[in-house]
Design brief:
single chain, alpha+beta, Alpha-Beta Plaits, Aminopeptidase, four-stranded mixed beta sheet
Length: 215
């Protein structure tokens, strides 16, 4: 199957056309309209600085249902002791910058390019992107960001500078989202970190059915 190259028109091919690894299309732009269409269609951008914009829709999809969140005994102790302070939407720009520069195992460079940062700051200013900040007193030691549409949250990235800070913020935010009626959190692709918190793999068709019903 040929890979679709997008132009300035705001559209995507059917997700069933994605290659085995999930790559659906390349090209296009990171405009507000295209990004919102992507997320509402089960698609997300992921590419490196020296590559064209790449659009993905993997099958299976890695997700967390808020009611399935697993909190270990050690994390419960940390939460009960209020080890960190957690805020939302207090410093989106710094959170996404820290996610971009965070060092990750087996990964060279970052997919959070300057173009991505500008695009998601624009989505934040429009009320679609959200950040979670984790503080140790006045120091930002962890955080995450993603897109909220209806009862769906599409997680993008997280970082930590203190042990368990990102996990602490994630758990706190998932509980907040659950109380607000969010039914699914998109984790995109498998990671051991999110697996340990209760995320599971589901078929792409089921994932898209859920988000379409809850946008």
């Amino acid at each position: 199957m040929k890979l679709v190259v997008l132009d300035k028109s705001i559209w995507f091919p059917p997700v069933e056309n994605a290659l085995d690894e999930g790559l659906l299309a390349i090209g296009g732009d990171l405009s507000e309209e295209r990004l919102l269409l992507a997320y509402s269609s089960g698609i997300f951008p992921w590419f490196s600085e020296d590559q064209p914009i790449a659009w993905w829709s993997p099958d299976p999809r890695f997700v967390l249902f808020p009611e399935d969140l697993y909190i270990s005994k050690s994390m419960r102790l940390m939460l009960n002791k209020n080890k960190f302070k957690v805020t939302t939407n207090q410093n989106f720009k710094e959170v996404i910058i820290q996610c971009a520069i965070a060092k990750r195992n087996f990964q060279y460079g970052t997919w959070i390019t300057d173009e991505m940062i500008d695009a998601y700051i624009n989505l934040y200013n429009k009320g679609f992107a959200h950040s979670v900040e984790v503080w140790n007193e006045d120091e930002l030691v962890g955080g995450l960001y993603g897109i909220r549409m209806g009862k769906c949250f599409f997680g993008e990235s997280m970082f930590h500078k203190a042990d368990n800070a990102s996990k602490y913020g994630f758990i706190t935010y998932v509980n907040q989202l659950k109380s607000e009626g969010v039914v699914i959190i998109d984790c995109q692709v498998y990671t051991p970190h999110l697996d340990s918190l209760g995320a599971i793999q589901i078929r792409r068709a089921k994932f898209i059915e859920i988000i379409k019903d809850n946008l």
